[in-house]
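Dear colleague,

Thank you for sharing your sequence with our group. We've completed the structure prediction you requested, and as agreed, I am returning the results in plain text so they can be pasted directly into your records. Please verify that the sequence below matches your submission; if there's any discrepancy, let me know and we will rerun it promptly.
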Amino acid sequence: MTEEETPEPRDLTREAAEAALEEVAAEVRVCPKCELARTRTHAVPGEGHPKAKVMLIGEGPGWHEDRQGRPFIGNAGKFLDELLAKAGLTRADVFITNVVKCRPPGNRDPMPDEIAACAPYLERQIAAIDPEVIVTLGRFSMARWFPGERISRIHGQPKRDGARLIVPMYHPAAALHQGNLRGAIEDDFAKLPKILAEAERDRETAAARDEPGANQMTLF
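Please find the predicted structure tokens below.
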């Protein structure tokens, strides 16, 4: 397919999106682009609905994720399942991934060059899924859309980014380590249905505005 023939993200069918995501996943599993490739057990491309309305982006795989090649399956993952339930969602409804696809040794913070190496994979995933809402989990995924901000100041506050809303939230693991954050992240997830409804209205309005003839003046 030539560049001119490449469909716009919103035109991708579920099957095409699924194929695009599997292509990314296949590349991620054998990716040699940074030092994390030398220490990983399994890369963790991400998983979920190929045309999810909600996409969750964490920071990086942990020990359990590295062993199984799946995102958010440890204690933080169990808490994430509870949080999704508060929003009326399940894992099957969303797509979950991270800014880096391989576990940083000792669960250290991901390095800038590691985030940069994985960035094209993440961009392709976003393009294929074209979610209406992106939830960033933790400060490293937040920084992609909110550079220089503090998560303690802006958590739960959506920001418009073109045709979608970006919602910064605490990482579920933070609430496990700091019990005082649990209520905040639960409250933020409880807002997701309202945020998603707002994003859907925005897309419907934009689609109506872009319909042929929508902006033409009537002669009579």
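Summary note from our side: Confidence is low (pLDDT under 50) at residues 1-9, 214-220.

Kind regards,
the structure core
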